[in-house]
Design brief:
It is built from 19 helices and 30 strands. It is an alpha+beta fold. Among the domains are: 149 residues, Aldehyde Oxidoreductase, domain 4, CATH 3.30.365; 161 residues, Aldehyde Oxidoreductase, domain 3; 204 residues, 2-Layer Sandwich (Aldehyde Oxidoreductase, domain 4), CATH 3.30.365.10. α6 crosses α7, α9 packs parallel to α10 and α10 runs parallel beside α18. The longest helix is centred in the last third of the chain and has 28 residues.
Length: 799
Amino acid sequence: MSSPNGTPTKITQGSQTKGGIGESTLRPDGTLKVTGEFAYSSDMWHEDMLWGQILRSTVAHAEIVSIDTSEALALPGVYAVLTYDDLPTEVKNYGLEIQDTPVLAHGKVRHHGEPVAIVAADHPETARRAAAKIKVDYKELPVITDEASATAPDAILVHENRDDHHSGHVPHPNIVHRQPIVRGDVTKARERADVIVEGEYTFGMQDQAFLGPESGLAVPEEDGGVHLYIATQWLHSDLRQIAPVLGLPEDKVRMTLSGVGGAFGGREDLSMQIHACLLALRTGKPVKIVYNRFESFFGHVHRHPAKLYYEHGATKDGKLTHMKCRIVLDGGAYASASPAVVGNASSLSVGPYVIDDVDIEAIALYTNNPPCGAMRGFGAVQACFAYEAQMDKLAKKLGMDPVEFRRLNAMEQGTIMPTGQPVDSPAPVAELLRRVKAMPMPPERQWESSEGADVRQLPGGLSNTTHGEGVVRGVGYAVGIKNVGFSEGFDDYSTAKVRVEVVGGEPVATVHTAMAEVGQGGVTVHAQIARTELGVTQVTIHPADTRVGSAGSTSASRQTYVTGGAVKNSCELVRKKVLEIGRRKFGSYHPAWATAELLLEGGKVVTDGGEVLADLADVLEDEVVEVEEEWRHRPTEPFDLRTGQGNGHVQYSFAAHRAVVEVDTELGLVKVIELACAQDVGKALNPLSVIGQIQGGTTQGLGVAVMEEIVVDPKTAKVKNPSFTDYLIPTILDTPTIPVDVLELADDHAPYGLRGIGEAPTLSSTPAVLAAIREATGLELNRTPVRPEHLTGTQLSEG
């Protein structure tokens, strides 16, 4: 950890309390997860429980002529079969921003795998057999699969009679959202350019591939409500969408977070939540739904595939003159988070560089492809892949070192973004690039030993396809910029309830938020914050539920910033009340109670000079101090729909990568040897967790670079590889060494100076790997993921 040229983060309150901010405390759920004892949502059980099953469409676009459920209902053990006509209220759609997604298909289906009917039975196999007996008569329709078919004058509309707050400013009803950004004069700037490079880039559809499939348990309550135990990313957003469909007030839909087996954006949208609740209310029995892996590929959104068209210019001395780009994101059949993804892709499309003259357009399409929405780094990931390839093209054309070219044009604190927003916190882009380039290189030809080749270190690995013949090393660099928190005027806040009391003679703090712990480590950090601010050792993290105010979504790298900020804020208010109690009780015994700055450390009240005034347990005695407060970061504003100008983002995070790869140029196989990363985190609240987040994000970026892609048939819009047999994700044998250099340059606007970290490494790892493969092969490689046929020129059979 290092913090050169940055503002040191001063943490005094409780800094001597063991397990506080800045320490690598261990996760409370870590051992249970490693040993297999952790209870995930799929492990839940209830007496007299039924099992739910969903029937999904077998076609991507079709009219529903008829649905016959009679055979399913006649099957012994079946308690209920529901279709659209059985929904209890007039509210039959849901959605994160645009309520365009039907709970069950009505009139037609718009994508492969869309829910059509749901079944409850006394055994999971009975439920599956009953769903298979439902007869659906489809009349297939032409499919919309790309921009040409979506925006043609005679294009079929994916959503007829569309009426939402984006529909008025888009040029075609099959465009979900459009965001231009125009700043300066690109035409004049182009005249100053000595070199111009263009590129067309294709980014594949990536799956979040979380290891715990969608699951939950809905339990009917005596008051006519329902209690849903669910693995999700945002309890209160789920609640807002679920209650109207059920026809219940929100206080009768109680929600408790159950064990989450990963998320990465794929649990922001609803999956089986409403279905389980409908079946529980209809049958009067608890209903559990657990997707298998095949269903999971259809049950959540994916990362938007994209086409990106870029033009950059530069002077002969290496200064960027202008940038033009057009980004086309495929949102699939329903809107999900597409508008926000468009906002991110457009506003971050320049990357972490100074370019005064830009002309940007980003759109998201409605198509009959699988719905796409949030995934780690959304929007910024696709843009980074393209602009970093452009940087390498420019550097090569100018005969410059690619790292030095980037450093020459790197933004810094004070740079004005293309949206007109100044960057008012550290932006150490040049320093990150310098550091990652200076990290030691892995040794050459690691596979060689006196006993022969270690095939695990070679392209192809244990398949034993090569022993070093035709293997070429390549090195590539990339850097990216990601926003932190929700943007464009969204009321982004969190709530924390903090209580301190004496239990067994010892002061104990309890922290209660609705934050979804999906693996990011919030349950660890919240305890660290409470120890730091309240000076207690024992901290209990209350299970997340909707009995406390919203914590917002576990996404956008926002939870440590926003919910951590809420915990810190509530702790400070609790501390203030505790000290008021102490002053009333003990103020007459020592003048320091009135004159000194007082802290809580190590279970004691102390002065800032370290003098102990009282034990915290003696101050509290039988009193309980509790505070529940909302906390907001500074506001943002929407981007102008014509110019894209506006202070749309809260904070930015930056990461740089160096990839070292070895490529068998004859077989088209790639082995990523190392993915070194340098990242500014503002303040490492838990250094061990910080390293884990950076390495995890880096690995997901590696996946989309060389193996991960959901393949959709362009003629039928059907998913061709919905399984981990055919959809490949990196294993431990594919994961390279990931050395990390962490900078801590405090953001004065953020709690403890911290900076959201979870997404930035996902941006730059992908283009760094592609850059390294390009250097090894000399090929242009303008798409992800890179496949063997792209490296050898041999087109493989689709069979």
